[in-house]
């Protein structure tokens, strides 16, 4: 019953298609459609592809829902590893009415045949030609049904960056596939500030001698990260020679592109010698998610190989893509017929006009090749390799790779790479369901067993035993030779910087052959900016000396960790300020003296107001009261005031003021002691700001970056800048001064200035450092040596060696010049604003309370007056008289007025009674 129901469904579907075609007047489908294939049958990829293509053709022809009566016929041609035969066979196919060609196997042949495919409009569909340049607009009829090598190179570049490496060596076959793949690798590495430091091409058909010669050159390079981009059939010999030369041991990293995984998947396990030569290598494999379709094809594989008599080998990724390629074409052919497409060919008149005996006129144009091509590119299906769709650039969507580590007789999957989320230990199809996340935290791979059975990540570079010495430039200084200088009549150098560099190199875990080369004319200091540019240009491998780490330089070179702090400072002549008649006035600034004096008078007046009505000591004639205020005010400075305070408000104000006086007096004493006992230096130049505003000449050291900084960053005219070559020139120019052809100040880096001031007591640093930097050693961009030396410099700092080297060269005790500035010992108003504010608020509040008390008392007194119609002026005079009176007198007057008022009221009553 089930089979009968299935037959009815097929019949209904067939009748529906026929009726649909009849309704649209579609032409009848041909009995067969021809497809050609070109690959090498006996290659690693070709053996698998042949079986997979035949299996796919059988499956398509056995499915009545695909071509619906049309048989798919595939004609195969063996190129037998010959590019010439591949081209000839491709031309022959063009004369046999094929609608598409599967292949060719190699990118090199695809480049050639694609031109013919464009002319004759026959799609060229390849599952193994992965050259990135084949996706260009130049080849519209080329369709790639596998992953583009551009993504494989992106995966490798992310792996290199993930492990912290910078330089890579690329070994490749010198053909279109190899060159273009390595070019794509270089582009992807540069995006991550990495690079290919050495390219090693091998000619097609290379010999063991060719490989040996190349690997000897590779061994002399610094990088130990080797990317092997080859074709699978002959590439294992490279590993064999590398193993023989000892290049598969500790420190080396070998990353093979997809060819190695194709061999291991198809032919493994390999023989013991070959297996031993690839231990620890990394390789990539185009990722195909697990599915029922894939599992079914793998389970059938043994029977398929037996049926084709192809021998024993396993299915690899290229076989999966070859299988899906047939299905892509089958679906495209079906869509082509549903759209009314007709398989027809016409001769190319230009080929008929061509002279010769090549029989080119046999080739014909596929009339509706463009329609068929568009149907191929519109593929939307799920195959054994997963979802199949093409993006706008003609590449398959969701490019992804498995990352494999060769261990023992097999491989271990250490992670995945996808264009969607980068490196991950989670399968890409799982991540497609989540938002893309390429943060560094999410970039993960499992641990790797590296060559030499090491689990420690290789550093990625070494100094080779047979490599040349590093050429290290050293500035040949003529001044401040303590830092770096050439030994007379020799090419050797010495100094603080040299000792630091030598000590750091000695801490490295590997030998660093180097040669120090003095650079300069011996007459004046060389330009440090030019030396840095020479390192960036490759004239030297590095530079050692007193090189300041500044922004402009870090854009073109790398610096090590600073080994000494530095920064620009201003040096000016100072004069000693001896004690004078008015030295006692120096502790306070003029503003502070004035404010302090005002507060003495203010507090005296406030206390007088608060004590005047009740304290006899604050009463008397006006002249006596004025003297009392002045005396009381200034006597509090010595806590010698004899007047007692009796009011609560007066005592409160006085306590607060005495606290302020105590602090002012203590500060004054301390400052005066410092001024009178410590040598004071003064100069009109207070720092860089006053130097800029002075418009006077400024000196700088020849070769220093100070010149550019002053002119470009601070916009000081170059006419104000004067070149000085030595400490003696500094002293002479500063002694002369700006009026006599000298300079007002010198701007230089702190280490030089400290050395200069150790023997020059007439000069001092004015102000603070106005730049912050340090000195480091110079190396080309992305040099691994700069990182390792930085670690060594930190170790020198921690173990005290850096300080000992400093003391050896730079410690001087010849001059103990004081650099104390008068202004630094003077006390400013800002230091006491808080105290004065508290005292002022206390005085204000006390006066406010006192005023309301007086108003209240006066209102009581005034309400008792018999005549309330007096004018305001009289009332104000009365209030002032009330405030000026002594409190006891005011009370007695008030009682007297009350008595007089009561007597008047009683007399008025008596008079009124007698009249009545």
Give the topology, please.
Elements (H helix, E strand, L loop, with lengths): L1 H22 L8 E8 L4 H18 L9 E8 L4 H11 L6 E3 L4 H14 L3 E3 L15 E3 L4 H14 L4 E7 L2 H15 L4 E8 L5 H12 L5 E5 L6 H9 L8 E4 L1 H10 L4 H6 L4 E5 L5 H17 L8 H22 L6 E3 L1 H5 L10 E3 L2 H9 L3 E3 L2 E3 L11 E8 L2 E9 L3 E3 L3 H4 L38 E6 L9 E2 L6 E2 L1 H11 L7 E6 L8 H10 L4 E7 L2 H4 L2 E3 L4 E3 L1 E6 L1 E3 L12 H22 L10 H14 L12 H30 L2 E3 L5 H7 L3 E4 L4 H8 L7 E4 L2 H10 L8 E5 H8 L5 E4 L6 E8 L3 H16 L1 H10 L11 H4 L7 H31 L8 H13 L2 H29 L1
Parallel strand pairs: 1-2, 1-3, 3-4, 4-5, 6-7, 6-8, 8-9, 9-10, 18-21, 18-22, 28-29, 28-30
Antiparallel strand pairs: 10-15, 11-12, 13-14, 15-16, 16-17, 19-20, 22-32, 23-32, 24-32, 25-30, 25-31, 26-27
Helix pairs in contact: 2-12, 3-4, 5-6, 7-8, 12-14, 16-26, 16-27, 19-20, 19-21, 19-29, 21-29
């Amino acid at each position: 019953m089930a089979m009968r129901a299935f037959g009815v469904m097929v019949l209904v579907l067939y009748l529906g298609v026929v009726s649909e075609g009849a309704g649209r007047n579609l032409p009848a489908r041909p009995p067969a459609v021809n497809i050609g294939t070109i690959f090498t049958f006996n290659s690693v990829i070709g053996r698998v592809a042949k079986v997979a293509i035949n299996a796919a053709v059988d499956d398509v022809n056995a499915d009545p829902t695909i071509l619906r009566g049309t048989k798919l016929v595939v004609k195969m041609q063996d190129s037998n590893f010959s590019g010439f035969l591949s081209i000839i066979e491709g031309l022959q196919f063009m004369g046999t009415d094929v609608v598409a060609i599967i292949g060719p196997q190699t990118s090199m042949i695809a480049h050639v045949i694609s031109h013919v495919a464009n002319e004759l409009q026959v799609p060229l569909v390849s599952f193994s030609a992965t050259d990135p340049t084949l996706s260009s607009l130049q080849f519209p009829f080329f369709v790639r049904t596998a992953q583009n090598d551009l993504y494989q190179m992106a995966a490798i570049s992310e792996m290199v960056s993930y492990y912290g490496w910078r330089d890579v060596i690329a070994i490749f076959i010198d053909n279109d596939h190899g060159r273009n793949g390595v070019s794509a690798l270089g582009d992807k590495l540069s995006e991550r500030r990495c690079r290919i430091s050495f390219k090693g091409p091998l000619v097609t058909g290379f010999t063991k001698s060719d490989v040996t010669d190349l690997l000897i050159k590779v061994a002399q390079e610094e990088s130990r990260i080797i990317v092997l981009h080859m074709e699978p059939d002959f590439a294992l010999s490279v590993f064999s020679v590398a193993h023989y030369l000892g290049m598969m041991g500790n420190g080396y990293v070998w990353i093979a592109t997809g060819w190695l995984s194709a061999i291991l998947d198809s032919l493994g396990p390999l023989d013991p010698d070959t297996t031993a030569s690839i231990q620890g290598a990394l390789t990539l494999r185009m990722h195909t998610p697990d599915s029922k379709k894939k599992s079914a094809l793998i389970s059938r594989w043994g029977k398929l190989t037996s049926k084709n008599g192809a021998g024993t080998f396993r299915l690899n990724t290229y076989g999966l893509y070859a299988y899906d390629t047939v299905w892509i074409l089958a679906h495209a052919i079906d869509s082509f017929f549903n759209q009314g497409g007709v398989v027809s060919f016409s001769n190319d008149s230009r080929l008929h006009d061509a002279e010769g005996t090549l029989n080119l006129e046999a080739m014909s144009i596929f009339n509706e090749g463009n329609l068929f091509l568009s149907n191929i590119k519109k593929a939307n299906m799920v195959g054994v390799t997963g979802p199949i769709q093409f993006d706008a650039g003609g590449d398959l969507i969701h490019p992804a790779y498995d990352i494999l580590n060769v261990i023992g007789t097999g491989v271990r999957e250490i992670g995945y790479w996808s264009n969607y989320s980068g490196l991950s230990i989670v399968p890409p199809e799982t991540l497609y369901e989540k938002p893309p996340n390429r943060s560094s935290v999410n970039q993960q791979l499992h641990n790797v067993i590296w060559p030499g059975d090491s689990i420690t990540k290789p550093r990625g570079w070494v100094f080779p035993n047979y490599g040349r010495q590093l050429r290290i430039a050293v500035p040949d200084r003529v001044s401040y030779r303590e830092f770096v200088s050439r030994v007379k009549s020799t090419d050797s150098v010495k100094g603080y910087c040299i000792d630091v560099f030598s000590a750091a190199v000695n801490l490295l875990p590997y030998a660093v052959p180097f040669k120090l080369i003095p650079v300069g004319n011996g007459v004046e200091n060389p330009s440090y900016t030019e030396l840095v540019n020479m390192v960036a240009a490759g004239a030297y491998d590095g530079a050692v000396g007193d090189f300041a780490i500044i922004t402009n330089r870090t854009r073109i070179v790398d610096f090590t960790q600073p080994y000494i702090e530095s920064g620009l400072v201003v040096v000016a002549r100072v004069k000693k300020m001896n004690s004078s008649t008015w030295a006692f006035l120096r502790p306070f600034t003029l503003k502070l003296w004035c404010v302090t004096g005002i507060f003495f008078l203010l507090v005296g007046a406030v206390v007088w107001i608060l004590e005047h009505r009740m304290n006899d000591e604050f009463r008397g004639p006006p002249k006596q009261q004025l003297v009392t205020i002045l005396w009381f005010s200034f006597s509090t400075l010595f806590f010698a005031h004899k007047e007692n305070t009796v009011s609560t408000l007066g005592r409160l104000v006085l306590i607060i003021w005495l606290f302020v006086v105590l602090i002012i007096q203590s500060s004054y004493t301390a400052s005066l002691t410092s001024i009178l006992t410590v040598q004071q230096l003064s100069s009109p130049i207070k720092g860089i700001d006053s130097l800029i505003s002075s418009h006077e000449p400024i000196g700088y050291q020849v070769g220093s970056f100070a010149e550019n900084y002053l002119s470009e960053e601070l916009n000081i005219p170059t006419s104000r800048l004067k070149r000085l070559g030595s400490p003696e020139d500094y002293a002479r120019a500063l002694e002369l001064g700006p009026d006599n052809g000298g300079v007002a100040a010198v701007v230089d880096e702190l280490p030089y200035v400290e050395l200069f001031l150790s023997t020059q007591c007439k000069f001092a640093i004015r102000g603070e450092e106005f730049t912050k930097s340090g000195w480091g050693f110079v190396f080309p961009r992305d040099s691994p040596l700069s990182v390792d030396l930085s670690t060594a410099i930190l170790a020198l700092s921690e173990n005290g060696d850096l300080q000992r080297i400093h003391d050896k060269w730079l410690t001087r005790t010849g001059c103990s010049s004081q650099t104390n500035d008068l202004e630094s010992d003077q006390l400013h108003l800002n230091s006491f604003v808080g105290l004065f504010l508290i005292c002022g608020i206390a005085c204000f509040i006390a006066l406010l309370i006192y005023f309301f008390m007086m108003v209240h008392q006066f209102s009581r007194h005034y309400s008792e007056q018999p005549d309330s119609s007096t004018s305001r002026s009289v009332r104000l005079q009365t209030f002032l008289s009330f405030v000026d009176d002594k409190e006891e007198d005011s009370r007695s007057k008030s009682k007297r007025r009350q008595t007089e008022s009561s007597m008047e009221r009683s007399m008025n009553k008596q008079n009124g009674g007698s009249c009545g």
